[in-house]
Structure to design on (322 residues):
């Protein structure tokens, strides 16, 4: 017979997740009320423990506190509440500046950038801010696209990413909100002014160079558009060439997760590197060399594949055994 006594932390985990998901599902609660409720419930719990009150009531109070803590943790992770976040100044924006924080995505007549903003122009006054946006630049003048790390000055406004009107379509608002991106801007390339300054990481910039070189090799080797699009998504995490029809086909078959570079891919690379370098265990200090090669190889692949949120947790569970 199942008993919670064998899983003392499971019930607290469940109620913590209830609080976190409650926030992300749109449950709106007054934060001041929640904080005072947390103080009050904690005080009552201390009193009950001191006077040896009913254990059931103490347990209920504890679970409620855990749920409130989960809600507050989720809210604290939402940077839109930051006083300097771009969300506070949307109505007055005439221009903005920031650096490209990810590899650009090129389409037929436009390029999409993820821009890390640091300042806004608000009716001729400059405001220091933080936050990321999607910048869509229409390439009308055939100007070479900017690269990762380039610092740009852009004349334009900001608009929230809207939810889809059709409930059956992909929810880009939810997808990008999980990456802390809530706003977008559409401008012509004549309104984008590169400053010549690069603020990106040299290591990640090198990883993108390797990634783009591998993309060129795949494009020159495979002639079929569908095969090329799938292979680049599987190996490099680049979904630029995936058509909606191809994406829908994988989604209908239940294999859409295969197209996202995740812990599964990191695990395959780990097994491959382990097979190639396990012989190092037989030499002095071989295990140290083996571990360094594996870590460098896995991190390099993760960087080349875009360093997505799905990849990072698997690094906590890599088995390094002699």
């Amino acid at each position: 017979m199942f008993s919670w006594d064998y899983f003392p932390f499971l019930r607290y985990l469940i109620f913590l997740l209830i609080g976190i998901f409650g926030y992300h599902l749109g449950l709106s609660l007054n934060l001041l009320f929640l904080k005072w409720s947390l103080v009050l419930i904690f005080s009552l719990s201390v009193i009950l423990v001191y006077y040896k009150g009913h254990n059931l009531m103490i347990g209920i109070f504890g679970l409620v506190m855990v749920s409130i803590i989960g809600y507050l943790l989720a809210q604290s992770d939402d940077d839109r509440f930051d006083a300097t976040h771009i969300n506070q100044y949307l109505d007055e924006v005439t221009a903005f500046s920031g650096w490209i924080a990810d590899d650009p995505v090129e389409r037929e007549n436009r390029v999409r950038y993820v821009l890390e903003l640091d300042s806004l122009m608000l009716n001729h006054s400059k405001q220091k801010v933080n936050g990321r946006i999607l910048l869509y630049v229409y390439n009308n003048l055939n100007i070479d696209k900017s690269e990762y790390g380039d610092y740009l000055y852009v004349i334009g406004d900001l608009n929230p990413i809207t939810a889809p009107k059709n409930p059956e379509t992909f929810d880009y608002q939810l997808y990008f909100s999980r990456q802390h991106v809530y706003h977008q801007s559409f401008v012509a390339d004549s309104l984008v002014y590169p400053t010549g300054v690069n603020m990106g990481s040299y290591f990640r910039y090198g990883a993108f160079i390797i990634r783009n070189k591998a993309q060129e090799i795949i494009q020159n080797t495979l002639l079929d558009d569908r095969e090329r699009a799938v292979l680049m998504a599987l190996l490099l995490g680049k979904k630029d060439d995936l058509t909606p029809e191809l994406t829908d086909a994988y989604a209908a078959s239940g294999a859409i997760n295969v197209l996202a570079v995740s812990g599964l891919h990191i695990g395959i690379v780990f097994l491959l590197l382990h097979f190639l370098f396990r012989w190092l265990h037989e030499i002095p200090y071989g295990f140290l060399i083996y571990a360094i090669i594996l870590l460098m190889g896995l991190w390099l692949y993760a960087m080349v594949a875009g360093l997505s949120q799905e990849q990072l947790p698997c690094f906590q569970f890599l088995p390094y055994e002699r």
User: Anything to note?
Assistant: The chain has a mean pLDDT of 77. The two ends are 40 Å apart (CA to CA). The chain has nine helices and nine strands. The beta strands are 93-100, 105-106, 110-122, 125-128, 132-138, 150-155, 159-160, 181-188, 192-198.
